[in-house]
Design a protein that fits this description.
single chain; alpha/beta; eight-stranded mixed beta sheet; 13 helices; 12 strands; globular; binds iron/sulfur cluster
Amino acid sequence: MTPARPPVAATASGVGIGGLGAPGPDAFLSVRDLRVHFPTDDGLVKSVDGMSFDLARGRTLGIVGESGSGKSVTSMAIMGLHKPGTVTMTGSIRLGGQELVGVDPDLVRELRGKRMSMIFQDPLSAMHPFYTVGHQIIEAYRVHNHVSKSVARKHAIDMLDRVGIPQSSSRVDDFPHQFSGGMRQRAMIAMALSCDPELLIADEPTTALDVTVQAQILDLIRDLQREFNSAVIIITHDLGVVAELADDILVMYAGRAVEYSSADTIFERPQHPNTWGLLTSMPRLDRERITRLRPIKGTPPSLINVPSGCPFHPRCAYAERMGGLCQSERPPFIEVLPSHHAACHLPQHERTSIWANDIQPTL
Ligand code: SF4
């Protein structure tokens, strides 16, 4: 994976972070103050605790963070995949103006597949091992389209063709285990796109694949997004993946957004110590590193007992500079530069100087 930032549209038009009023005029997906909490015997797990963002069609948002930061729980909430009764969900998720929080699960199920679909990290767990790949695409297509089996089969072969499966007219009758890992991922993309979803969520879509196949799958997602003009969310722990694909990046920590801006801006002048940590721990294949990788020290916090003040303070190398403020007060998520939001107490000039003098030269 090449983490260098390729050229992309530089503005975040049509996508915004709520401040958090009405959805932006172009927002196709609008999330406001989303909270997803799981009651457990040990206490309430606050996996997502106040997320807000907008996403327009034709745009790609990368949601980035370490495991446990809440990014996958957010995407599962949007797709309505949390088991009822195991979770309390509040706030608002609007898809094309339709509210999804607190509505009949059947309505969300209907929208899933028809207007939104998801690509998972592991296609084997998302595809049924006893049915052929073609059968699964055909069934997914026929749930939302009243067409004959032969028409649906032709569509399935077309989709397999589109995602680059060779000899699609015969491979359509193969079982998932007869496909290689990369081909299974392509087949799942074909299944996810078979109903032309307006929103596509890809959760760690390339983690299990080798580097060459990763690049092919990312190219494929980008090409198909352009063709379908979908709104796309890429969920990943790897900033290299979003460097390839995203227009905008939202960094999550402990269930909340800690930084958000256009992808160019995040790579050029990130404003949050957590984002700096993600960057310094990212392998670079495009150029020789001057220093060793520096993973973020410590481990992600418990989501039952989230640290006081800024949840990142036990791991932050700069918390001491603020004389106890980081331990006592949660920093607000505010616009620190034009179209650039972050949640950090450090004064602007200090963030600029740390990035320019301590972080950037080591990448
Ligand atoms: Fe670090 Fe304090 Fe900024 Fe949190 S608020 S990221 S602890 S400097």
